[in-house]
């Protein structure tokens, strides 16, 4: 296994939430983190907190040209990326009829398309080095849909599919590039303020610190998949049921109503 210190880590959505917490874990491990986000004030605050091992980097993940430009600059200045964590994500939290075209385009641009473009940017050097790790932060919403999540849920289903496709493609081509999928239930970061869960002992609103710690551990151990909480794994079995019965089970456990009181960050 390659040296697990002094690596170059790129984390998108690093100005706040799980991205910032993950950055802290890597930095305390002795790694250098390029923290990417469109939130410059959040990046500045993270930089003040973490010191010179955190490199604040503004990026607009909805703009493919900006992704190409920023990643080319990072690779030119700092060298091969050892781990890419595609963490950034947004949610509209609206009924389908309320989604604007801009809502849909931006959700897919950030939650899905950016993963492909960022990965394309770092893969050539990883392949040449015969070492690299791509982490896809998706969601439990990528396995089970709910109301008021049409764009977000569809984008996270796509992110799960991207992780699958990338893993298979790297194996098929014989490239030793590792992949990890992280798919948590709702996390108490503010992004999903107002969401509720019917059986909190089965589907709790997750603590950000614990999610970040488990995610870091999964990446360090090169786990293929981390789904939180474990109850979400039942989705794979429940999906074998007839559709109407599947819907009844999801409704019974309150999954279809989790977004009823959603406020988000406003």
Q: Tell me the β content.
A: 5-15%
Low-confidence stretches: none
Per CATH, the superfamily is NAD(P)-binding Rossmann-like Domain
Q: In DSSP terms, counting alpha (H) and pi (I) runs of 4 or more, how many helices? A: 8
What would you call the shape? globular
Number of domains: 1
Describe this structure in words.
The chain has 266 residues and is an alpha/beta fold. The chain has one domain (8-257): 3-Layer(aba) Sandwich (Rossmann fold). It contains 8 helices and 7 strands; from the N terminus they run βαβαβαβαβαβαβαα. The chain has a 7-stranded parallel β-sheet, sandwiched between helices. It is globular and about 55 Å long. The protein starts with 7 loop residues before the first strand and ends in a 14-residue tail after the last helix. The mean pLDDT is 96.
What are the defining features of this structure?
Rossmann fold; alpha/beta; 45% helix; 266 residues; seven-stranded parallel β-sheet; 7 strands; 8 helices
